[in-house]
Automatic annotation (TrEMBL):
The organism of origin for this protein: Chitinophaga niabensis
Domain START-like, residue spans: 1-126
Protein name per Swiss-Prot or TrEMBL: Activator of Hsp90 ATPase homolog 1-like protein
InterPro entries to which the protein is assigned, alphabetical: START-like_dom_sf, START_2
Pfam families (UniProt xref): START_2 (PF19569)
Amino acid sequence: MSKKVQYELEYPVRCSPGILFEFLSTPAGLQEWFADKVDFRDNVFSFSWNGSTEEEAEVLEQLPDERIRLRWLHAPKGEYFEFSIQISEVTNMTILTVRDFAEKKEVADQSQLWNYQIKDLFHRIGN
């Protein structure tokens, strides 16, 4: 089994950090773009797609309007995915950063999947 590598994707977004964070950290927000159904209980999100596939992710860290870090329950302890929000000092634009882990040869495919998901998020927030 090869070791996964961390990769990072950045997206400029025309949205306030508070509104964006709602879409990244609440069941209702995540259900708009990330999964078909999202539940939250005992610090664990349950995601389902196509009415059957279900995955669970625990919240490792959360700073309101700044960052949420989650770990799939089936993933090794050191792996996570994270959404972080910053304001560019140069452009004053909101920047969404996605950090995730993938096999080195799968980073491009996983990045493309995130690009598709984030495009759907931006559509939902009117970006």
